[in-house]
Structures are given as C-alpha cells and as structure tokens.
Write a structure and sequence with these properties.
single chain, alpha+beta, globular, 4 strands, about 130 residues
Amino acid sequence: MGTLVTLHLPPGSPLTDAPWVITIGSLGDREDWDPVVCGPYERDHAIALARAVVADDELMAVVEPMFPLDGADAIRKEIEAARAMADGDTAPADELLAEQGIGGPPPPTPDPSQVHDGWRRIAARLSR
C-alpha cells in the first residue's frame, strides 16, 4: 500500500473549485524514476484516482491544487499566503485526513467519461 498526501482545506475553501494535479512517485529510494504529474482534475476526482493508484503499490501520490496564476507577482503573493498559513497549521496529519474525508472508505474511482466532464467544467471556470 502506498501513501496519499493532500492539503487540509477548511470548509468552503475556494481552492476546492481549483483544478487539482496528482504527482505520483516512488515511495522511498528503492526505485529511480521521474515522478509522473497528471491532471488537471476536479478535487474529488484527483483524490479518488490517486487513492486507486496507490492502493496496491508502493507509491506516493501528492494531490494539490493547480494555481492558474497570470504572472510572477501573482505567484509571489500565493507563496506569501502559503507561508503565512503554514505558520499557524499545527493539526496532526490524521486529524487533517479525517476532516478531508480521506481516512474513511475510498470514494468511487471516476471513469474516463466523468473525468472528461470534469475537464470541461474546469475549462469553463478557467476561461471566464
């Protein structure tokens, strides 16, 4: 069994609606290959897909939002905000997973048509 890592989001976070990516890599130093980055996905799809991939393999999946930022200043502002949030984040990891619904039974893995529908919704949000 592998490992799934994702962000703790408070209820109602606007990041929930952001596009999400999955980075999958080796768990530990036993294998030497470049991580695979895939997406974008809707958050629930990303978590379900990552869980399905790491369920039976010694892999690590990191599920995180993708920030469609339009310049270096916007990226710097996002980095500052992330640093400020990290200073106050002290909840244990198992509590964070439970709050995100990740510690319970796995959600159903979306089929390709559901992922394609998600891509259309993401494209519509990004093109506004």
